[in-house]
Every structure is written in structure tokens, then in C-alpha cells.
Specification:
With 519 residues, the protein is an alpha/beta fold. It has 22 helices and nine strands. The protein is 57% helix and 7% strand. α10 runs parallel beside α12 and α19 crosses α20. The longest helix is centred in the N-terminal third of the chain and has 23 residues. The protein is elongated, with a radius of gyration of 25 Å.
Amino acid sequence: MERSDTARRWPGSGLESRIGLAALTAAVLVAAMVRLAFSDYSLWFDELASVFFASQPTERLWSAWMLRETNPPLFYTLLRWWIEGTELSDAGLRVPGIAASLAAIGVIYAAVARAYGRRAAVAAALLLALSPQQLYFSHQVRAYIFLYLAVAVSFAGLVQIVLATTARARAIGWVLYVMGAVAGIYLHTTGLIWPATATLALMLVDARFRPFRGGLWIALAVAGGMIVLGSSWWLYITFRQLAQPNGNLGWMQGLGLTKSALVYVATLLQSRQISALQLPAPLLVAGFAALGAWRGRGEAVTRLTLACLATGTALFLVLNLKQPIFLDRTILWLSLFPLVLAARGVGTLRGRGYAAALVALALALGVSVALTRPHLPKEDWRAVVTRVAADPGAALLVDGEAMGVATQMACRVQLHRPACPFAVVPLVAPGPQLDSWGRGLAARAPARGGRLALPADARAYVLRRPFHDALVDVQRTGLLRGADATPPEAPVVVGPYPPALLVAVAGRTRVSDGTIRVP
């Protein structure tokens, strides 16, 4: 396979390098300012779960205790280290994700500069700095942006391997590839798809990596073995999880063909939602990616990038037939490959055409980022806990133990208290719990004689949320039958209800293991 005729060494000294580093610094600074400026809004349920797991002892996170949680412990460990040195706040908890997003800009800049030169690398940095998608996921207190960074490091290793002309350079590439892949698996279980994608892509486009034919297939096999060995503990945990019913995945449903296609296209083109004013940005990204794929069709890295995109997509679709995993957050790292191609396309332009392309991308992406800002918040838990906390005699009914845990975490983040100043009462309906990771972890409900025991003047509030609707639990007991039970689109608190409701709930339920069992 031919190497790129534009491939060059990592940026070194000289005017070109200084201009490139100045552009990279500017991109990182702009990205940091935008991400930090927009970061102060309420965490949502999944992020509150992250805060809970990050509050656990490190030895617990790296033990069989994690059988209850489908997400690996590396992100929680990193978040725990951050929490230990800072105060809990919405914006503060988003800083690690923002840092990972900024680090990805540097990693991808270096990889693109290695493959296509400084001009393309500057375009890649600009795309990442003003990407609405990167803005959104850098704010998520979840592992997805860290997985993106890990895959970027691993892919940079592949670029190094493919273009290396010395054994030392290729060895560095193998180290980056393996370390990034192992880190990705410990960040999110779907990270397993990346080394499979990389292996198949290398064998498809480069004969040197094909078994028994090329000179590098043994090295590829050894690297694969090291990835398996390095991630073996989490592979074992995952195997045990698959052998038992898992309520953590019960909410996941297929998006359907049309929505899956829309999510796929938007994700690949660095977008979140696409409106008329936001349409120019993904169209420009798509156009430059097509240009880069065409003009670089004979280049090693371009063919590898296209193969990674096609192979990764195919693997996601196949696995999605078994378990719905084709979601914007799980396929986030696939967007790396169109971005590299788009940077290649911009990098092929010269003179005013190159400058015009950068300006057009900056304007289109800037508009898209501004229009994305109102869509960043997912759930307003700040409003939930502050409303209930304003009532000194409140008791909040929630659905399931995981919601009880999330509510306590919301009180820690929003009210800066170790526990909620009101009673949190988890109602557990018959059958497997959704989000079963919370089983046995919620604060125990006050009980006397196997019945809920709250102060006689306690007023009831009911927390309703998609997939976790405490109103449905209350109605199962025969109470509040006249209330509108249309599923809410976001968390909402209804009430207050008079103390008689809690008395009635206590009479129609029983307390077992600290939770209220609904018949």
C-alpha cells in the first residue's frame, strides 16, 4: 500500500511549525472558553449516577461489586480523583470532560499533521474546537468523551504504524494503539468495538497486516493479544453480566431505521440537532470530507480512515441486532473519521480557497454552537430538589432505588448537603427493577412494624420522570387514580399532597429491606 505523498514528520521547528502551534493554541483556548462558559446547568439522571459511583472507594470500583454496573470503572476513578480535590457543582463536575475534549484536539492535530501536514491539522483543530457535538459531550459527566479521546490516541498510533519508516517509530505507534484501546475498553464496554474495527481495517487496506501474507501481521496479532490481556478483568466482568438478567439495559430500545439514520448522519457530521440555520455546518463538513476522500483516495491514511469508518459502522449495526447500542453517545468516536477526511479536504486547498474554507467553517459552526446552547440541558434536577427542599415537612416519593440514590446525589450537588433535607421514599413495584445498579443502595425508608412511618404532618410530593414515574407506583396502590398519568418528557414534581396520602400509602404497602414494596 502506498503511503501518502503528503505525509511528513511530526511538526518540528521553523515558521510553519510556529504558525501551526499558534493556530492549535488558539483553537484550544476558544474551545475552552466556549465549553466553560456554557457549562453551568443541571446534571441529569445518568450524570448523578456517575457522581454516586465516583463517590465509592477505589477498591470497590475495581472489584466484583461492579457486576451491578454495566459501565467500567476507569471514568469513575478519574472523576473520583477530581471530586476529592474540588467542591461538587454542575460546572465543576464538567471540567474533566472539557479537559478530555481539549486533549483530543491536540491528539488529532498531531495525527493529522503527521499524515497530511499542518494545513489539514489546523482545519481539524478548528472543526473540533467549534463542534456542537464536542461541546455537548464535553459537558456530559459520563465516559463518552474520554472514550473518544482514547480512540483518538489509538488511531494516532495506527497512523504512526502505517507511515513509520523505522522500527522505533513503529514501536511507538504500537504502544499508542494498544494503550488507547485498553483505556477505551475500561472507559466504556462498547470500546471493545474499536480494536476489532482497527484490526479488520488494517487487514482490508494494507497487505502487510494480512495473516501469513504480510510482514506485520504477527505484530498486529501480538497487539491484539496485549489488548485482550490488558482488558481481561473487565472482559470477565462483562461475561458474568451477560450471564444474568440486567435491568440497567432494560430502558434501551432501538431507534428505528429513520431515526437511526438521522442520528448517524448528525453524529458523523459533528452536529446535534439540525435546523435550517444549522444546516450549513454539516453540509460543509460532508463536502470537505468527500473532497478529502476523493483527493486522498490513493493515500494510506485516507484508505485506513475510510476502512475504519465502514468497518466500525458495520460492527455497530451487527451488534445492535442483539442489543440496542446504536446511540449518538456510543457511536461518538466514529465521528473522528469523517473529521479527519474533512481536514484532509480543507488541507488540499491553497491560498484564498484555504482561508475561505476556514472562515466558512468557523462561521457555520459558530452559529450551530450558539443554537445548540439552549438544547444542552436534559433534566432540571436543580429545580426538583430546590422545590421540595423549600417545604420543611416534605417527603418525596420516587420510583425505584436508583432514583432514590440519584435524588440524594442531586441534593449533594445542588444543595451542597450530605443528604436531602426531606425524606426520600423509594417505591419498588413487583418485578425486576429498572436501573438495577441501585438495588440496596438507597437510603432506608423510615419504618415501624413493617410499614412506612413518617411524621404525621408530612406532605407528599411525587417525582415523575420518563421510565421512572412514581405516580404510576402510587396508582398501583389504588390512590390518585384521577391524576393524569401521561408519561412526562422530563422530571417533574407534582404536589404537595396532604399527609393523608402518605398514611394511605403506608397502609397499602410494606417495608422490606428499607424500601417500600408496592403490591
